[in-house]
Amino acid sequence: MFRKSHVGALGALLLCSAAQIHAQAGSTPAMDSDYAAAVKSWTTKPEFMSPLVDHLPVSSTIPSPKEVLGDHIGAPNKLHYYQQIVGYYRALAQAAPDRVKIVEIGKTEEGRENIIVMISSAQNMADIENTRLGLAKLADPRGVSEEEAKAVIAETPPIYHISAGLHSAETGPPEMLMELAYRLLADDSETFQRIRDNVIVSLSPVLEADGRDRYVDWYYRNLIDERDDRNKPGGPPYWGKYIYHDNNRDINLSDTSAKELMKWYLEWHPPIMHELHESVPFLYIYSGMAPQNPDLDPLLFAELPWFSNYEMAQLTKYGMPGVWTHGYVDAWTPGYLAFMSSNHNGMLRMYETFGNGGATTMYRHVAPDPASGLGRDQTTRKWYRPNPPYKEVMWSLRNNTNFMETGVLTALDMTSRFPREILENFYKKSRDAIKVGAGEAPYGFIIPAGQADPTRVKFVTDILQLQGIEIGQAEREVKLKEGTYPAGSLIVKLDQPYGRLAKILLRVQDNYPDENVGTYDDAAWTMGLMAHARIVESADKEILSVPTRALDSYTPRGSITGSGAKTYAVLDTGAVGMATLRYKLADVGGVEIVEEAFKSGGTTIPAGSFLVPGRAYDTLKPLVETLALDAVGIGSAADKAQTHASELPRLGVFSTWGSTQDVGWLRYGLDQQEIDYDLLFKERVRQGNLRADYDVIILPQQGRSTKDIVFDIPMTGKPLPYTKTDQYRFSGDYGSSPDIRGGMGLEGLAELKKFVDAGGTLITTGRASEVPIEYGFVSEIATKAPPANFYAPGPIVKGKVVKPQSPIFYGYAGELKGGKVQGGELAQGELPLRWAQSTTYYVPERLKADVLMTYPGGKDSILSGFIRDGDKLKDNAAIINVPSGEGRILMFATNPVWRWQNWGEFRMLYNAVLNWKQLGATDETPPPPPEVPAAQQ
Ligand SMILES: [Zn+2]
């Protein structure tokens, strides 16, 4: 069982004694015989070992993992907490300060330190600032001559960055990297000397440090004795604070740790970043399979198999089975964290090794159960998988460590043999990115000044700048083929080092190579359409010559005019920050919301605007300024305005225990906007009497089926506690349960129904909208399956608002006028929407008045990405609003808070929350049948 390991002073003591035991005279380096015997016994078959990792040199100066942590890496039933892992690297830095540099890059969401560990020869480390400057020149070769670039390439070691622990259930990589770091310092063989001389290795020891601790807790408490891979409990309800496995899909870098890594990247420019994951057997090496994003440099897709084939060949030569390449994950979306490098003209690399979700050795059924019809079979021989994984196997953490470490060492060996080629490629990709941007349309993007809601522009520009993309501000009016734009407009020219990324993020995804080839994630992400910000793609080369001032950061400020007014109107032009403002004014009484636009002086006060009493001026002023909202003082016009009192609801957000990720994205949005809510789990829902505590409950998309939302984790096996105790200090965050199994069940469902009947408002999003329909909360409306060959990987499509007077569309009036957008033309009443899911809804003609928004459907309705066989979806309901009992059920077939992406849709959900008492504004009693003449009765 688990025993606290030794870090710090105790580690140093152990180091001395171990060194005394193992130090040997003579020229043959001493090997740690204890290590060799231990790892041999933990490796379940001889062919799962390699000549690269079956031995460990003894060092008199560098502490081995066992000396600091108490055991060799890969010991059965042993995982290390984050502090222990950081402690080990600190011990290495203390032992070899001339060869190890620890860079503190920031703090995680929960306040753990984020570090990068850099290791190389003493000479390279002494010279590391020159390396940093040299790599910066290759990353941005503007003003660097070919001769200078050649000189930099000749004298600069590439940085090879390796990261572990992004996905907390993938527990092996953070363990393996500690042993790798030890070898990099302690092994004096020719290979390691060459690696040290020619490469700087940098490590992210654990990318999701918060989740590491939470998972290790969970492992020791609930998983350590589980040996049946076909009936094993899942992981803890949370890894990091918010988004679970989607921390790998955080395209807009919402997560603090992702932001910090990005900033570090732009400082150091590692030409290669290699992310270590666990899933498929036994070692899958990413090689950039189709669909490839054609906006990335072709050289990238030539480099990827260069590496992966070498590694596959070497490991296969060692007799290790199951090493393969080419399949599994494609190269379409730019949103994976590891794509940071390829997005910036470097090279991403990725491994998937076979993990047990912990350190317990167990018998694994590798081939999918043929009867299930689920899962791809990775145990068959293919041209890219010459020696396939076994169908069944006894598998250990040490096996996993052997495969991963042998692969990484092979990659480092190769890098040390070709450091010049790697830097030449990096330089060439950076240089050509600028050339491509200057040589072919589009040449740039323009973000016109004067948009009604500047915060949408800020949403886009902040992310672009975080990615290192340069934005200029036009000093004068800009005339281009596409139109004339006012001074102050923002311009992204593509003849810049990260022009390729700018193009990928901003363009319409109309270049998907083949709709019959599936993709691993979304097919579309166009930032302007997602944010509902106006962005224009320019095919006019003149855009490159427009004089601009480098934009430091775009920080629109709001304003308030007319001091001493009786009332202030905060104009609703669609800003998400309106919700924040309303919550920040929670203590100000008498706030009203405008229901119909009216004029005051020369100003139009749109529907959705807040009327705030003049006495709150001092509170209001700084808020509207920082939230970039505009407020005007109004006089008697306020008396005639059609308004309703704004009452903040007591808000609950339901989450299953078994799938918290999609709720995590919503929580992130609500927290960013400072919207007040309680997170509700099955325990509270089953307890009942929900109406006593809540006015509105959101049942958001949970990334799973209707049945799973209700019944969640099956009541099989043993109880699964998620509570904080002295022993398990990292559990019980964001909710707590003595047993997370069982779901809300039918009892909970009945309580939700009672909540609605008693006057509560239930809001559902995405697939969770099937719950009230499938379980009969509403009658007559039905779900229906999509067409047979239907496929819609997150395209951006048109939505048609059919009830523009609904409070849900406050703030959208300007947009609803229609007009040209990227990817098409919007008719009056249409908005861009992210297509959320495959379920569609049938609403009978008689109840059509309950539909607030529809999908017009058909090819013309697709703005970015694609839908295969979607023609039959014409006029399907996108938002349905049904009175029920004393309350109401509002169902979004869309997902109005999709990751940190469709910012332009967030307001629809927030409007529903803020105007919960007015959602019946568009209710209509179904028309009675025509009267039958008396004579015919
Ligand atoms: Zn993973």
Question: What radius of gyration results from the CA coordinates?
Answer: 30 Å
**Low-confidence parts:** 1-25
**CATH H level, superfamily name of the largest domain:** Zn peptidases
Instruction: Quote the average pLDDT.
Output: 95
- Please count the helical segments: 27
Bound molecules: zinc ion
In angstroms, what separates the terminal alpha carbons? 84 Å
Helical content stands at: 25-40%
Features:
Alpha-Beta Plaits; 27 helices; Aminopeptidase; 31% helix; binds zinc ion; 8-stranded mixed beta sheet; alpha+beta; 937 residues; 41 strands; single chain
What does this structure look like?
It is a single chain. With 937 residues, the chain is of the alpha+beta class. The protein has 4 domains: 96-432, Zn peptidases (Aminopeptidase); 441-550, no CATH class; 559-645, 2-Layer Sandwich (Alpha-Beta Plaits); 651-922, 3-Layer(aba) Sandwich (Rossmann fold), CATH 3.40.50.880. The protein is 31% helix and 18% strand. It is built from 27 helices and 41 strands. Strands 28, 29, 30, 31, 33, 36, 38, 39, 40 and 41 form a 10-stranded mixed beta sheet that branches. An 8-stranded mixed beta sheet has the order 1-2-4-3-5-10-6-8, sandwiched between helices. Helix 6 (128-139) packs parallel to helix 15 and helix 9 crosses helix 14 (397-417). The longest helix has 21 residues, at 397-417. It is globular, with a radius of gyration of 30 Å. The chain starts with 8 loop residues before the first helix and ends in a 23-residue tail after the last helix. Residues 1-25 have low confidence and may be disordered. Zinc ion is lined by residues 167, 170, 277. This is Peptidase M14 domain-containing protein. Residues 87-222 form the Peptidase M14 domain. It comes from Novosphingobium decolorationis. Keywords: Signal. Residues 1-23 form the signal peptide.
